Amino acid sequence: MPGPLSVKNLSVHYHLQDEPALSDVSYEAAPGHLTAIIGPNGAGKSTFLKAVMGLIPYTGEVKVFGQPLKDQKHKIAYMPQRSSVDWDFPISALDVAAMGLYGQIGFMRRVTKQHKTEALSYLDQVDMADYADRQIGQLSGGQQQRVFLARTLAQNADLYFMDEPLAGVDITTEKIIISILEKLKKDGKTILVVHHDLQSVGNFFDKALLLNQTKIAEGPAKKVLTPDNLAKAYKTPVLTDVA
């Protein structure tokens, strides 16, 4: 069976005269695993996610479950960085969760009571059902992150891309998110997560993809996080006990 994500010779140039944001990255995602995408600031981690989802131009080949990306978008869910969202937009937590159901609702179709009940069930999974009617800008950062996780879960995908879901969240939110990620993995889903905290990679993730404009290493998390690999990625010795 084809793997959930196959990337061959992926390169991204934001400006033709600049160095590539990503260069010649080939990668095969392991099915049913929770993978951290790690590397220094500017390494191309978010760029990698956006490219494989077709959100930005790239060269190379991307296949999802053995098929071109355009034919498999219904099998993908994406959780963007919280900083990319307009939190002043007048929309409730329940409305945000219901956005994850648009694939089944259809474009410009009305959100029914049944859809709202289903969306509420996803808010409940992230312990946010009591805040369903709250405007998203009135929520804390961790609560906002959980609402967007509910929207992601509502997409009921097989392959999940999440961009720094654990960045700047409180302990309660961190525990809830990790619990959800582990449940998705147990259910056979494949999850790729941009993650910034090297110290926790080995605790939360079973595999890692280390980038710095190109692929440095991939594989089991503790084998990727060696002093040599980290020094190559960060261009300096990294003091950490992750290996």
Helical coverage, percent range: 25-40%
Q: Give the low-confidence spans.
A: none
Question: Which strand order spans the largest sheet, edge to edge or round the barrel?
Answer: 6-7-8-3-9-10
Rg from Cα: 18 Å
Sheet-strand content, in percent, reads: 15-25%
> What's the story with the biggest beta sheet?
6 strands, mixed
C-alpha end-to-end distance: 32 Å
Overall pLDDT confidence? 90
- How many helices does DSSP assign? 9
Global shape: globular
Elements, N to C (H/E) = EEEHEEEHHHHEHEHEEHH
Counting DSSP E segments of at least 2 residues, the number of strands comes to: 10
Derived from helix and strand composition plus strand pairing, the structural class reads alpha/beta
Tags for this model:
single chain; 243 residues; alpha/beta; 6-stranded mixed beta sheet; 4-stranded antiparallel beta sheet
Short description:
This protein is an alpha/beta fold.
Model description:
This protein has 243 residues and is an alpha/beta fold. The protein contains nine helices and ten strands. The strands form two sheets. Strands 6-7-8-3-9-10 form a six-stranded mixed sheet, with helices on both faces. A four-stranded antiparallel sheet has the order 2-1-4-5, covered by helices on one side. Strand 4 and strand 5 form a beta hairpin. Helix 2 packs across helix 4 and helix 4 packs across helix 5. The mean pLDDT is 90.
